[in-house]
Design brief:
Structural class: mainly alpha
Order of helices and strands: HHHHHHHHHEEHHHHHHHHHHHHHEE
Radius of gyration: 30 Å
Number of helices: 22
Strand order of the largest sheet: 1-2
Number of strands: 4
Largest sheet: 2 strands, antiparallel
């Protein structure tokens, strides 16, 4: 098209074309630009040096990892021009005149080695794409799945790709035209790609028992590759022409895409190492049948995210392992979720639970046991899967699940009315406490996620900390009730006892710190009560759904603006309250938690302790808060800095010592 020309298409009208330019999203809105014709054209069969092939393979990994981090295939993998030139570099299609007599540039480096690497790259992308489109992660939110009508080795079975990579390894190993240094470097890269193809294939087929050997080899190969980087190609080298960031403009795409800068090679290897580490964690976690351990590990992942371990592909793989096609952890039926739920807090076998219900039921209708089982399964599995959502998606899921938790709580309350009384502790009463504890835990997650996502304005922080302290108080009450009714032997020896004691100390520390920050920040609210009330209704709209009115049982733990305004007046006049002492109390509790870390984190106990230790450091820093409310009036709140990268929920002091 010439500048100024206009073209219409029935599938892409003018409105859609204009919308693409009005979005102004840097990832997509590329504006109007002409292709750069100043560089020499790309020739796929031009002979290359071994170090140039190594450099091209490494940069192809850059394209792959950039796609995994959220860019489109057309901006990353499809900008690697050898992807589109596979027919041209087929050994059977290369004409004899391309066989250059230069012994340093054998054509097999392109037709055998580079072609095998490109096919392996596309197969890895194909296998990852199949995992990504399962529905665990969302298109255009977590991933970009548009293939732009470009084939990705879908027609090649995995065994064929592995055979091609093996043939390339054999050629490199036996070639006398490549120096030994580069033979080793090329072999490392080919083996790395081959093992990645096997690993991604095993993940898609859920052969988790194969993970550990398949992870160890590429990890070793990656160390070798990082230790022997190829030199940058010279200005006259044809290698850089294998990558064209403007090539996506000629592909079939819904909207024009902006060229991107591929990440540095060191960051690429870091991303790949993080992917391998994540899949190794999955191979360890899949052997733990207790869903409570999955919940602890998933929560820890949200609290303390590790770099390069939150790729959409990895998060989808974890969710597939948790639940897919009616199977939990790739081996259990849905009944397993109810088993874990009952054994975690109640130490009651599933069969005993069923028997207790059936023998005591005196209601006029049938016992809603199936409904209770199904709801527990959906909520528990959904909660665990949500730990591997992206943070905003997880926050929205938690908000929606609160109503379902309350519905379950109300159902159990109604069931209890139609059960014959028993001497001693009623199992339904205990189960109601566990359900309520889970609901209050979800509310705490919602409030804390607001800090982690930097959603709260200065005026909203005092309300958030006050509300968090109120919810934690109710949470601790439920926890105490559950511990109290555990059988005596289980109170002393059970895993639940140790875990609940850890949680009680940890939650008490969070409550103390929340109260301290509420007291210090309450004076920062600079708008009217009416404006605050409107912000309150908007921020906590999930608590004011009309559907709650359908239940006779009122929801527990919902925010109350009038109680907040009263607390603001009371805390400012409290002569005995000391924010600094609350921070000291939180530090003592957290330091005590490091010596008794609970029993449900399993191999991730050191990670849990690392997070608690960092929390204790924040508390130690916040001991510089005012010692009384009188001191807090002139105290400069600007000394507090909220930075989720340092601490997800609480501030740190400027000029930390």
């Amino acid at each position: 098209m010439e500048p100024g020309a206009l073209m219409f298409n029935k599938d892409f009208p003018l409105h859609d074309a204009m919308a693409a330019f009005e979005i102004s999203e840097p990832l997509f809105d590329s504006g109007l630009a002409f292709l750069d014709d100043s560089h020499p054209p790309f020739d796929p069969v031009v002979p290359l040096l071994p170090e140039e092939v190594c450099w091209i393979i490494d940069r192809a990994f850059s394209c792959e990892m950039a796609w995994h981090t959220g860019y489109t295939l057309s901006q990353t993998v499809f900008s690697f021009l050898y992807v589109h030139a596979l027919p041209d570099i087929d050994p059977d299609m290369i004409s004899p005149h391309h066989h250059d007599p230069d012994r340093t540039r054998p054509v097999e480096l392109v037709s055998v080695v580079l072609r095998a690497s490109v096919l392996g790259l596309l197969k890895c992308c194909d296998l990852a794409w199949r995992e990504l489109v399962k529905g665990n992660v969302y298109d255009c939110e977590d991933r970009q799945s548009d293939k732009c009508d470009v084939p990705m080795s879908e027609a090649y079975p995995v065994i064929r790709i592995l055979g091609i990579l093996d043939e390339a390894c054999v050629w490199v190993r036996n070639s006398s035209r490549v120096r030994s240094t580069w033979r080793t470097a090329l072999s490392h890269r080919l083996v790395l790609r081959k093992m990645l193809v096997e690993l991604f294939s095993a993940l898609l087929s859920k052969d988790y028992f194969r993970f550990r050997p398949l992870i160890e080899t590429p990890r070793v190969m990656l160390q070798h590759v990082r230790a022997s980087p190829p030199p940058p190609p010279r200005s006259c080298s044809p290698a850089p022409r294998a990558f064209d960031p403007q090539f996506p403009r000629v592909l079939v795409s819904a909207i024009p895409l902006q060229p991107i800068q591929l990440p540095e090679q060191s960051k690429v290897w870091d991303t790949l190492a993080g992917l391998l580490d994540s899949l190794e964690q999955l191979s360890v976690l899949i052997e733990i049948p207790d869903l409570s351990a999955w919940d602890v590990v998933g929560t820890l992942r949200i609290w303390q995210p590790h770099p390069n371990q939150s790729l959409a592909y990895v998060r989808s793989a974890f969710q597939s392992a948790i639940y897919e096609n009616g199977i939990i952890l790739n081996k259990y039926l849905q009944k397993h979720a109810v088993d874990c739920f009952l054994m975690e807090a109640l130490q009651i076998p599933y069969d005993s639970f069923i028997s207790s219900f059936q023998t005591r039921w005196v209601g006029p209708d049938s016992l809603p046991l199936r409904h209770i089982e199904r709801t527990i399964t959906e909520l528990l599995v959904g909660r665990i899967k949500s730990h591997w959502y992206n943070p905003p998606r997880r926050r929205r899921y938690c908000m929606k699940s609160l109503f379902d938790w309350h519905e379950l709580y109300a159902t159990l309350t109604d069931v209890q009315k139609h059960l014959a009384p028993v001497s001693g502790t009623d199992v339904v009463t205990r189960l109601r406490s566990v359900v309520l504890m889970r609901r209050l835990e979800t509310i705490s997650d919602i409030v804390l996620s607001g800090f982690q996502l930097s959603l709260y304005s200065v005026n909203e922080r005092p309300l958030a900390y006050w509300y968090l302290a109120r919810v934690l108080e109710q949470h601790l009450t439920c926890l105490g009730e559950i511990i109290e009714v555990l059988p005596s032997k289980q109170r002393i020896y059970s895993m639940s006892r140790f875990e609940f004691q850890f949680r009680a100390r940890y939650l008490t520390a969070l409550q103390a710190l929340s109260l301290a920050l509420f007291a210090v920040t309450v004076k920062t609210m600079g708008c009217s009560w009416e404006r605050l009330r409107l912000n309150f209704l908007r921020r906590y709209k999930w608590a004011f759904m009309h559907e709650y009115e359908d239940f006779d049982v009122p929801p527990v733990g919902h925010p109350n603006f009038l109680a907040f305004t009263t607390s603001c007046s009371v805390i400012l006049q409290d002569k005995e309250f000391s924010p600094a002492e609350q921070a000291e109390l939180a530090e003592r509790l957290l330091m005590g938690s490091t010596t008794a870390p609970g029993r449900m984190a399993g191999p991730w106990t050191p990670d849990r302790m690392e997070f608690v230790s960092k929390m204790a450091e924040v508390c130690r820093d916040l001991r510089r808060l005012p010692k009384s409310m009188d001191e807090s009036r002139p105290w400069d709140v600007e000394q507090l800095v909220w930075d989720p990268d340092v601490q997800p929920w609480f501030p740190v002091m400027r000029n930390r010592s």
